Amino acid sequence: MRPDIAIVLAAGLGKRMRPITDTIPKPLVRIAGKTLLDWGLDSLAAAGVGTAVVNVHYLPEQIVAHVAARRAPRIVISDESDRLLDSAGGIVKALPELGQQPFYILNADTFWIDHGPLNLRRLALAWDAAKMDILLMLADLHQATGHCGSTDFLVAPDGALRRSKGDPAGLIYAGAAIIHPRLF
Fold it and tell me: Residue 98: phi, psi to the nearest 5?
């Protein structure tokens, strides 16, 4: 089953991108003529996602104005202006909008370029709600651009993940996942 809803984590402060983010939120930084946020929302739309919950905190009015004209996916704002809730807290706050079925999670500050089958659709094909609470999209460190740091996970033959502790054979988290709300 392919999720029809997603949360896009767009509430962060963007401290590592200062001074660029002194006046605009990181999700509105443009890469190749398109905002980081639009890279993610366009990927969701291409994968057939009908609704995206976008959480906001830092300079929220800019993100709200930016997404107002979008037609696909439909945007629902989860406002964290009063207090930054971090990733899990932002998801918990948005759970009433996300419903009881598995949903995508996208970081608003990462993007990928699909070659062939859409990565989000491939992720959905691998999803098995009977066996999984969460499924992460991973990438080879050597195929990533702009990633600072080491690897995140090693994949066992059965697909189970464990922290790589920087092992060069590991993979990096690519900023997208499918999660079942029962995890919360």
Answer: -85, -25
